[in-house]
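Exercise: predict the structure of this protein bound to zinc ion.
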Amino acid sequence: MAAVRACEICKQPIDPERAEAIPDSRLCTEHARAIARFGGEFITTGVQERTSKAGSLKRNYGGVATSKSRNHEALRRLREEFEQLQGTMKRGRS
Ligand SMILES: [Zn+2]
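Solution:
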C-alpha cells in the first residue's frame, strides 16, 4: 500500500500503478514523458564493483554496482518549462 504521491512538477496525483511500478518516481505520467526530452528523471550509472566499499548510494547487483540518482538538471528544466507555461496562461487572461 503506497500513499498517493503528487507530481513534483504539476502537483497532480501520480497514477498509483505507475507509483508502484517506479517507487522512486516523483512525476506523473505526463511529466515522466516530458522529462525524457531532458534526459529522463533518473541518471543510472553502472560500474564494475571493486573490492573497496561501495558508496552509500550504490546498490550491489551481482558484481556491478549501480548508482541511480535523480536527474536534478532535467527536473529543474522541466519545472522551469512548466512555470513558464503557467505564466503564459495567466498573462493571456487580460
Ligand atoms: Zn505532472
